[in-house]
Amino acid sequence: MADDTPKKEEKPSKIDVLLRPAGDAPILKRKKWQVDPAKKVEWIAGFLRKLLKCEQSESIFLYVNQAFAPSPDRDIGTLYECFGGDGKLVLHYAKTQAWG
To answer: Which residue range is the domain that position 30 belongs to?
Structure first.
């Protein structure tokens, strides 16, 4: 007997996050990272600060869809569910405010 109940889509254990530069931001050698969906946007910002060797006084701005800056306490899994596609979430980063 077949089970006709709709299956819930399984949440991925890791999300492919593509980091793309905007404005004057330096280009990363590696652009795709696998991130735990429970991580917060602020974690990505801190990770980027280390990768880019930012001074403590420098800011990092993150954007979704080249349009808005997600709040630092937003988790990556929720952003992926709302704005991800093709198995990945694209985030743009800049050292100066670029959009929004």
So the answer is: 15-94
